[in-house]
Inverse folding.
């Protein structure tokens, strides 16, 4: 469904406030925030179902510029080469919008659904946005879970050139098949070596997402927003809610040290590294995350 949040149109999936808990109280809410260029449908159904069965109301949304949420093509097409150079030199980067803006979108989703507080769970860029939510609106956040994400601090290990090359490469054409081939190749490069996936099923899920929406210009603008978020590392010290940091120990896109640094910067954060996990959410990783996430939320 489409809602108005932070003065823009945001696509939302909500499992709804009913049924109520055992004593008639409203079910606690988990807000899931997806990563760079990924839509709300990228959340594994098994994870959503596990949360629902554990008694949570689950809310997902398409971040701005992606999926069925409002696009920002009027803000132009960013120059990634120039942005990358400025980032390496430590120069200030001007982005079409910020991760703080995207955090306000997420808070706006809660406002529109009349949800006062929620557990915030984000993966990759979604983890960065989740951190921003916890900084901007601490009274609204019951807990923070940052998965395969980063503090954004300078000097942290970055993705290898092969990984970046695959990430920034383009499909042969804009046909559904060629775009799917591109993402299959990408997930093979960044995926979890110890957690096999069903290749046919994975490709079909990718195709479903492409058919739903494919908007690479939005992904580029989101990339610039990540690069421009230079003040967040210092601001993570402001976070006071219970925090769980989950990170793959063999993540080739956002290396494990990024998760370590995130946990160090948030007082009391609990860091859990998963052996053999890369930068994706295959079934085996989802099972592992679920066994960590549910007890954390319950506590």
């Amino acid at each position: 469904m489409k809602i108005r949040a932070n003065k823009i149109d945001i696509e939302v999936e909500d499992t709804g406030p009913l049924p109520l808990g055992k004593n008639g109280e409203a079910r606690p809410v988990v807000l899931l925030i997806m990563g760079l260029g990924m839509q709300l449908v990228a959340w594994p159904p098994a994870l959503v179902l596990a949360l629902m069965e554990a008694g949570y109301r689950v809310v997902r949304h398409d971040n701005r510029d992606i999926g069925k949420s409002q696009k920002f093509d009027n803000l132009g097409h960013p120059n990634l080469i120039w942005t990358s150079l400025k980032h390496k030199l430590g120069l200030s980067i001007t982005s079409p919008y910020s991760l703080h803006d995207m955090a306000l979108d997420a808070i706006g989703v809660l406002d529109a659904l009349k949800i006062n507080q929620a557990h915030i769970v984000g993966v990759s860029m979604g983890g960065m946005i989740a951190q921003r939510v916890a900084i901007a609106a601490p009274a609204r956040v019951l807990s923070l879970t940052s998965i395969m994400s980063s503090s954004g601090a300078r000097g942290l290990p970055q993705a290898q050139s092969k990984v970046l090359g695959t990430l920034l490469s383009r499909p042969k054409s804009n046909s559904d098949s060629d775009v799917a081939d591109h993402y299959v190749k990408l997930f093979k490069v960044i995926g979890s070596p110890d957690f096999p996936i069903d290749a046919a099923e994975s490709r079909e899920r990718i195709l479903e997402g492409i058919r739903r929406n494919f908007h690479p210009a939005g992904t580029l603008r989101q990339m610039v927003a990540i690069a421009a978020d230079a003040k967040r590392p210092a601001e993570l010290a402001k976070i006071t809610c219970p925090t769980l940091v989950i990170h793959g120990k063999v993540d080739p896109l956002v290396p494990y040290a990024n998760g370590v640094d995130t946990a160090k910067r948030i007082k009391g954060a609990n860091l859990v590294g998963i052996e053999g996990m890369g930068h994706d959410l295959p079934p085996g990783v989802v099972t592992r995350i679920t066994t960590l996430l549910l007890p954390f939320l319950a506590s």
Observations:
- Residues 2-156+216-298 form a domain with the Rossmann fold fold (CATH 3.40.50.1820).
- The chain has one domain: 2-156+216-298.
- Residues 41 and 209 are 7 Å apart (CA to CA).
- The first strand starts at residue 2 and ends at 5.
